[in-house]
Amino acid sequence: MSSLRADAAARRALILDAADHVFGSHGVNAPLDLVVERAQVGRATLYRNFHDRTALMQALLERTVDRIARRARALEGRDDALFELIADIAQRTVDSPALSDYWRAVDPNDSAMKAARAEVWAIFEGPMQRAVAAGLCRPDLLVADITLISGMLGAALRGRTRDERTVLARRALELLRGGLQGPAAAVDTDGGNRSPEA
Fold it and tell me: Right CATH number for 59-183 from 1.10.357.10, 3.10.580.10, 3.40.50.1950, 1.10.10.60?
């Protein structure tokens, strides 16, 4: 019985991998037959696991949240875990543009989306508090800001190719890191630095 469950889990993972690839290459409206073909399973197997496209996208979303949670556990205890997790989100945007686009396009009040967002916020809360306590990022950072940060990283979706998305994601990370660390000292008219209070 356990081997049957393991086989079913392996088939489900295979379908999700195939969907991730197909949607990343052809968009979320790609024919599901392409997913079936890439996964090398029958249509009945696809629909036994995912009754429609929305269920497939939600499963991909859940898998991404689970990966973020596993990564956070692996980084536990590190002061810079917040920045590593944000870099992982940027990489996911590059690797899976369709899923990132889906995350941004679905109604934020959708129950599955709200649950996923709440889970991501809970994952980020500890690393964020640790980064603030270590003086690595600004003290006014809120866990809800993760949604805004994710949206900023989503600008990498403007890249038409993986290479273009990689360049955009790296630049977004550079700019975000500066913003997360806090406001830079203001520059006076003589070109010298002065403190924001001056």
Answer: 1.10.357.10
